[in-house]
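Internal ticket - ligand job 581, magnesium ion:
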Amino acid sequence: MGEQLSGLGASPGIAIGPVFRYEKQRLRAEKVFVEAPDAEQAALQTALDQAAAELEELRARTAQEAGAEEAAIFEAQALFLEDPELLQQVTSLIEEESVSAAYAWDQGTQYYSEMLRALDDPYLAQRALDVEDVAQRVLAILQDEDRSDMRLLQRAVIVAQDLTPSDTVSLPKEMVLAFCTAEGGPTSHAAILAKALGVPAVVGLGSSLLTLENGAQVIVDGDAGLLLLEPDEELLQQYGERRRELSSLRSKAEARSHEPAVTRDGVAVEVVANVANVADAEEALQYGAEGIGLLRTEFLFLNRDEAPSEEEQVAVYREILQLMGQRPVVVRTLDIGGDKPAPYLDLPAEDNPFLGQRGIRLTLCLEELFQTQLRALLRAGHSHNLKIMFPMVSNLNELQQALVHLQAAREALEARGRAYAKDVEVGIMVEVPSAALIASVLAQHVDVFSIGTNDLAQYTMAAARTNASVASLANPFHPAVLHLIEMTIAAAHEQGRWVGLCGEFAGNPLAAPLLLGLGLDEFSMSPRAIPVVKEALRRLSSEDARDIARHALTLPDADTVEAYLKSVQEASNERAGKCHQ
Ligand code: PEP
Ligand code: MG
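stdout (structure tokens):
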């Protein structure tokens, strides 16, 4: 058997094919003095206009091929073309030093992206990559360079150091079998786009990836995060079979995505979506979501100069609630902090933003911002099935304070004589281990729980989810995390409360028997994961699931749990295959 490289699975699926090394030349501009700075200013403007038109074209194409959320990356990139600070810097350089537009643009954008990188924040590092992407686009136009340096003549596995969003979508989709990068994390733009395009991806494979020769045969396992080099016949056959199975499962699941997920013994399990905006909510309906289990409201507050007004928030929340009709919509109050900065809030930098003023801790200190959001939510929720959920609750006091705020918002609306949702249900995210450990106390004060395994795993395992070198430790299959999930569900059920789970874990079909067996009432996931998870639930009986969960909880580590659940899944696939023969 040949060698293998391991990284992090960023988009599921199997691909088999030859390597294509994607190495794009980075353009640079020499310092050139000019006689007529005005002509350079005009050339800059023309290039910016052309770049804007290209980005709009990419946005439209991506929206069609991958979805609105992914297309929004190019909208965000286009904003850099109008960034007043950046443009001011570039135009003054042309004016004051009589240099070419290309040189001034190159200098200005390099300075800008270095500044973002220096802040040592994963979110801003991603924005720096966007600036570099846009910078190269404009520079190529100014220097009249042909950027179509990708000559993909056969279907191939794209191997690169890292990929920008432009690289990812400008590669001819029908020729790309998979993406593999030496760097990057599972939440990088390229990874998100790969997932949306339905192409497997493995990131963080390390620099030895870049020694692979063009044309070398590989197998990409996007689920396991593996790249198998020069596989032998046996391995090729084994993976080829798995690939066929997966694709037939996906088509079957999609054909039934609008039917409910009813287990073999007749239990209907609620399958809902995680969304961040109106476009996502539309996609959720398209994939058969029965409601929204997590509306992340951060999108309304980031990348802008001031907080959204009450009216603006009401309009957006209402649009989503109307789209969902009477289906349940769980809206999470603002979950920002040092890791997702909003400049107008003027938050101090923190050494450990994930352990700092985040989520409810922050909104409890920003009374006006919190009150405005709560009033907007209560107003928009009138005559809809709205539930309000607080993020990052770690003790009873925070929850009690949040409930006092909610009551104050109700009273303010009452005093104004406004219509609002009077009997809205209230919940919390259980994503800090302390909240899981005191779930029976917290359950006495709320109607619903939603377990946030993305954070629960990182806090339980003390491994930051954004740090590629430890991210694999923050694994929700770890028994420590599973015990916390079990405790939370048991405590909530004892008080007659229902429990959802809205971390990425809920969208992993491998976890479905385990979570069902632990008694989870609602699975909330990214819209595209819905069909396959519904299908996985339909194959189970509650009793089998309970046995599976009970056994999984006796296992010693995440790998053993995953291996056990894989064996369960394979047996179930085999049974399903036999039934269809
Ligand atoms: C979670 O922590 O699991 C979660 C769903 O919230 P977010 O990913 O937005 O932190
Ligand atoms: Mg969270």
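Auto-summary: The first helix runs from residue 37 to 65. The two ends are 33 Å apart (CA to CA).
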